[in-house]
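Crash report, auto-generated. Payload:
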Amino acid sequence: MSRIGVFICHCGENIARTVDVEAVAEALKDHPGVAFATGYKYMCSDPGQTLVRQAIAEHDLTGVVVAACSPHMHERTFRRACDQAGLNKYMCEMANIREHCSWIHEDRGEATEKAIDIARTIVEKVKHNQPLESIRIPVTKRALVIGGGIAGIQAALDIADGGHEVILVEKEASIGGHMSQLSETFPTLDCSQCILTPRMVEAYQHPNITLHTWSEVESVDGYIGNFTVKIRKKARSVNEDLCNGCGDCQAACPAKKIPSEFEAGLGKRTAISVPFPQAVPNIPVLDRQNCTLFKGRRKGLAKDACGKCKEACLKGAIDYDAEDTFVEKQVGAIVVAVGFKLYDIGREQPEGLKGYGEYGYGEVPDVIDGLQFERLASASGPTAGAILRPSDGTEPKTVVFVHCVGSRDPEKGIKYCSKICCMYNAKHAMLYKHKVHDGRAVAFYMDIRAAGKGYDEFSRRAIEEDGAEYVRGRVSRIFRDGDKVRVWGYDTLNGEQVVIDADMVVLATAMRPQDGVRELAQKLSVSTDEHGFINEAHPKLRPVETNTAGVFVAGACQAPRDIPESVAMASASAAKVMSLFSADELEREPAVAIVNENTCIGCMRCELVCPYGAIEQREICTVDGQVCGHVAYVNPGVCQGCGTCQAVCLSKSVELQTFTDEQVYSEINALCAWE
Amino acid sequence: MSDVTVTAREARHALTDIAYYPGCSLHGTSREFDESLRAVAAELGIGITEIRDWSCCGASSGHTTDHLLGVALPARNLALAEAQGYDTVLAPCAACYNRLSAARLAIATEDGLAERIPDVIGRGFGNTVQVRNAVELLRDAAVTVEEKAAASLTPNPLEGVKLAAYYGCLLVRPAEVCGYDDPEQPTSMDEVISACGADAVDWNMKVECCGGAFSVTRTSSVVRLGRAIIDDARAHGAEAIVVACPLCHSNLDLRQKAMVARGEEPLPILFVTQVVGLAVGLTPESLGLERHFVDTEPLIARLVEQAGARDAEERRVKQEAAAKAAERAARQKKGSS
Amino acid sequence: MSDFEPRITAFVCNWCTYTGADLAGTSRLHMASNVRIIRLPCTGRIDPLFIVKAFERGADGVIVSGCHPADCHYTSGNYHARRRFAVFHDIMEFIGVDPRRMTFSWVSASEGAKWRDVVDEAVTNVRALGSFEAYRALAPVEDRKA
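Recovered output after restart:
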């Protein structure tokens, strides 16, 4: 016989303003199976939870229904309270009369009636709830970090220092990410590589970290605590165990004019190369697209057209016949830290974005973006740190910096602010003025966003100490006029048009998600937003978790962000991973499907539809051990509780616990209470 | 050989019978645009017929007064074309083109407008007509233009001549209304110029404002803006500016006297249809070239002379080569016999 | 007839539509009050008989709503639901149930406004169709008040 307690929350004014809570309590008191019904101001508060515990004891309750906010908010809270009072926590459910009722209706009568219906429906469901026990599964205490930029490196180091194994996968030839391309970092003007490379080396040498560079995640199966990941190690054509990083192969390579990706197109590299001298690992990659030998092989030449790197290598590390290999590993948690790329203003754009025809579609050579400026300013860059025009190598005497190119521009398809550009523009203006003392730096801005520690002071420095001219207004056109780059802008504070004949223009282009991030997200079953940034579980309170248990996110792949925040997120993810690894077993919700072997006819339709491969055949034997048939069996460790199997079962033999047919039908039947 | 797109070849067959909406300017101050358009259309085998009983498109006054009025005025003309059995309307004037296209778009996308318009204009309207301007039409017919230019009996006076394509504003913007070319860096008129054998220069003022309707109320602004356009075209080596809009033409041609310095050669402003006409061998008179304020005669005379001289030189070189070849053949024959 | 207010049962998935409906609440988006939500882990869990039962037990209309294709929290549950519903929809139409009584939609966790639109549209449509008493009269269920 059911003895259910119903607790209706006022939620201050949130529910009580629209729903007559006392009327709901009265109506539920009379409902068959309800032993106790009351209203209370704030059920989730300490006294509210005490009320539940007391009522369980006093009225010998067999089930609890809290009619209040969404179960997504407080199901856990009230289940815990029931557990503390000795009532199995799965006998507790919530009826959503706030988000689904008081907050969306105005008519008090209608809302109260609806609240009564909702509460009654859940009471009927709870009558069929079972006292379930959590499932315990083992946890593999090894983490996978995808992305070797500053966020990935930080997460890997934190987890490794915490005593757990980490696999760090990076798709480029070296870890370091975009931070390794920067010259200096704001707000301290620290040399970027100086602060980054020690971390890179630490990650490489850490006994707990296994680094796979020039590699990508091929597939991910499984679930929290028990992921199986397959990593594709792309063919480097260089044996990582034999190579000692001497660089003789690079010196010998005849193909020297390939645009360097690391130099953002402003410098050249050889076909076999490391991206930059401080690369970690310092093992080159042979770019088969641009390699003379491989071009010849693709043409079908009988004899190899080149072999200079192999000849030059004294360790015999070059292997032209190397192929992609795969590594399969079990991990318990995954951190996604794949970073960002910059929006480009060219004509060709992905769906939903437009380029900047008014700025020349990227075809004016002296109009560059932020990363290109960083390479110019870098001591190890293509101009050894001198600020020079890409077109003719002369020193620019007037440089215009344009904020918000792409960002905050719905016309071009990007509404968001990229957060870091106001800061790095100030940095660029300062770096330019430090190197070209008689130069003129003009920055066109909309608003200055310098909200971090020391940030506003830094951006004021550019103006007050280094003489950068800040003009509030947008740039309507940039085009080449003879030797100069003409910039048409507007000064909204003076109300005047501004025309500048610049020598060089630096565009602060928007931060965008990496290429291939949607495919990766699908492999991990995490979702991305309309731009491709990875979705966090909750924007305020769960910023480093995703909706897939066991998969965490850090850095600019979740939203535009700067280095300190990326590092903070990375450490936060690492903390989450380590808390996951702190127990040997993980408690899982018992919302899994169970097969009734007596009625199962073994058609295995369920096996076909299960997205996780959680269902297998199990043989049925007679008393004397003869196999006489088979039935389906659901692995409780793998089942995620979707219930698709139950919907296709012909004999109604599989039941999803917490959403059984009895429970659902009882809710449907409760609708007759409308009469 | 110019760079003509495949779609242009495919579009050829569609250019047989088109409704023609001249608007007020092509029958008035830009008569030469109308004359040259008709001459070129005939030459290219494009049939154009004026819409019977066409009326004002509203231009700027229409849509700045009232949205419904600004849509209904052009819609009436589209409805007439539809009723008269056409599926395409050619509106050479950029403002008419823009208003007719905008009306089309508004009726297709705005809630309730498709239902209201028939009441306002007093006839049914299915919004089935497409709207084209002269540049688009000629771009789609570029293959034919090239063929005709090559087959012309007179040498092409525009061969290799540097021309600056000036689009102004309404031909390519707003992007959703026009849609046939890039709004910031358009190339359709450049393609037409290339098909004529001329050299479309890469210059900076393709889509910059000429001052538009301020020609009368703020003439000084028009002069300042126009001067910037002409100076840039000249700086990039253009011998003439090509336009496809009566107002652009008027501002740059009629007002050019105030824009050029004393002693400076003025820059002729040609309609794109006149350019095509010259390339395919039509006479300057048939193209209305004598109607311009900036005299086109010196330029055309010079280009015709240059073309003639070039052609004569080519012939001479060919004759010499043929003669040499004949001589060689004769010697060989002698040697073997 | 003019007083008729339809009763609509909605079968929604926990991860997308239920959360989207929560968001509609958090955003205080007002909508018609005729809908009662039954939460399920996934639309793949929905047995067509749930819908039949709902009609039998008093619903004049039914909404089924889940995650957008490719976004199902359980990877493929919503695809199964879509296929199942497509066939079920045809069967219901064949036996004479007006298909406008059933609404199938994708509402994601961030689409509070879309949920409001789905609800309002379904209520408007079903209100126009009138009560489904005719169906219940075919086979009256004894002991309706369980």
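Post-recovery validation: Residues 242 and 317 of chain A are 5 Å apart (CA to CA).
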